[in-house]
Amino acid sequence: MKALHFLPYIRAFEAVARIGSVRQAADELGLSPGAVSLQLRRLSETTGLTLLEKSGRNIKLTAAGRDFAQTVSHAIGNLAAAVEDGTDRRLESHQHKLTVALPPALAIAWMAGLLVQFAGARGLTDLSMRNCIRASDVAWDDVDLAVVYDNPPFDGLWWQAVSDVKLRTVCSPLLFPRLEGPLRERKLRDVTLLHEDDGREWTRWSAASRISLEGSRSVRVQSVAIAVASALQGQGIALVSDVLTRSYLYEGRLIQPFPTAIPASAGYYLLCPTEKAEEPLIQAFANQIAAHLRGERSGEKQAQ
Questions:
Q1: pLDDT (average), residues 117-127
Q2: What sign results for the dihedral spanned by CA atoms 71, 77, 81, 87?
Q3: Could you tell me if 152 and 269 are in contact, meaning their C-beta atoms sit under 8 angstroms apart?
Q4: Is the pLDDT of residue 227 over 60?
Q5: How many CB atoms lie within 10 A of CB 55?
Q6: Integer Cα distance of 226 and 44 in angstroms
Q7: pLDDT per residue as tens digits for the range 31-89
Q8: What is the mean pLDDT of residues 168-182?
Q9: Whole-angstrom Cα distance, residue 278 to residue 89?
Q10: What is the phi/psi pair of residue 238, to 5°?
């Protein structure tokens, strides 16, 4: 490729040909006028073409220089278009793929369905869902965004609260008759309490509701999804967020036997790497979640 040895000098020539001044071209390129003049001489020596000639204190293009400048301008335009096309294809390819990590309970309750609908509406052809609970569970080199049950701050990540989280008791309507006696006594004797933590949330709820847990049975499960599933099967009472149970409550498959609610020890947050926060796909999904939750709250108010 010996004939292309002139390429390092093309930028200086293009600037001078376009601007018509060595000094102004040097200012644009961040070089000294002497450095630009040297590159112009090297270009003529390498190509064997006389491209510029003096005109008083200025310089102008020769006939060969005009032809060369036109060719250079056309080539630079093609290169710019190729870079833009390549960027568009990369973005298009990226935007057709989405990998999301989220808590299994939230996925089962409603977010998996929302994700599938979102992928269809956006024309995504490759949607992957991974399990996570905390931000530390997410392998960010293979995940675009995540919804976690955790507390900020999240270093190096952009985050947005998904919903306020309050914990309420839920159980199957089949179980409720068994609660009427204990409720009069302000106790949950012989009732199974389902939880995934060490029992502290039930203790906080007991203090807030002034209902004793004396004589109750404790069943600790691996995830809140199992607690909700067990409650649906009439196996006990779960203490979980409305974010996970709204659809079951609306359908009548679960009820809230007691009105007391307590704040959760963590919240649901949408996360992504900071550099991806402004990507249209990320913002569109954040808006989709917000719209879904607004719709559910609106439905609850109308029902009330």
A1: 88
A2: positive
A3: yes
A4: yes
A5: 9
A6: 77
A7: 888 888 888 888 888 888 888 887 776 778 888 878 888 887 777 777 777 666 655 55
A8: 78
A9: 18
A10: -110, 150
- Which has more pLDDT, 84 or 17? 17
pLDDT interval class at 298 (50, 70, 90): very low
Question: Cα separation of 266 and 152, whole Å?
Answer: 9
Query: 129 phi and psi, to 5 degrees?
Result: -120, 135
Q: 3 exposed, middle or buried (CB, 10 Å; 0-12, 13-18, 19+)?
A: exposed
| Residue 223, token pair as written in the block | 């995830």
DSSP state of 110: I
H or E element, residue 152: none
Closest CA relative to residue 96, chosen from 117, 128, 122: 122
Contact in structure between 255 and 171 (CB atoms under 8 Å): yes
CA atoms within 13 A on the CB side of 195: 20
If you write DSSP's letter for every residue of 205-229 in order, what string do you get? HHHHHT-B-TT-EEEE-SSHHHHHH
Instruction: Name the nearest CA neighbour of 201 among 220, 229, 226, 225.
Output: 220
How far apart, in whole angstroms, are the C-alpha atoms of residue 163 and residue 78?
A: 49
